[in-house]
């Protein structure tokens, strides 16, 4: 039986990043499965950038 993995990013953070990238409408209407892998990769890059900025600024 497969285990369900717990996500690293919260749904709220993913939604905020999707809004920044302009794919939130697609996510809210059709779900994450409808988002192209290129956009998901860009979302991941943006999340990493934000985490690095927070660490650099001492907010993490």
From TrEMBL:
<dbReference type="GO" id="GO:0003690">
    <property type="term" value="F:double-stranded DNA binding"/>
</dbReference>
<dbReference type="GO" id="GO:0006265">
    <property type="term" value="P:DNA topological change"/>
</dbReference>
<dbReference type="Pfam" id="PF00269">
    <property type="entry name" value="SASP"/>
</dbReference>
<protein>
    <submittedName>
        <fullName>Small, acid-soluble spore protein, alpha/beta type</fullName>
    </submittedName>
</protein>
<dbReference type="InterPro" id="IPR001448">
    <property type="entry name" value="SASP_alpha/beta-type"/>
</dbReference>
